[in-house]
Design a protein that fits this description.
Length: 162
Amino acid sequence: MRLSRKAWNNVVIFSMLIMIFFLNGIHQKMNPSNEETGSMPLFEQQSFVLALGFPGYKIERIGTSWRLSADAEATWQAPPATLDALVTRWQESELALTDSPGLPASAALSVAQFWLASSELPVSYQLYRQQQRYYLFARQSQRWFSLSKTQAQQLFAPIELK
């Protein structure tokens, strides 16, 4: 059986595509991404935070400083420098990735929501505790992070953790 010139072109094109997919798969197996293990930042470096919300509190960017809005029963107060340090701590934090501890969403101790300049919807992080260990769940990326009690207290400063 003889193939025409057009048919041979199609054979060459399809064989090149198969070879590209094959080589790309080998590349992915030989060089796995670092996201699977180790620590990872909570935000991309270029993320620009417009507001941060905790239950009962909202921290908003006003020009180059920050303003705290709180519910009537809220007791935590902080000057703009402390608010700036809190937002910076969130932006610069790198936490260890971990496997899912299997906690239900209803067991969350608190939640932090970030409104970023680059997205319409807020980015949400939920804090959990299980057997004296703290976990942070990033809802958008579906990743679990482990953190110490000190880190949890620093990131969730307005909320009293026991």
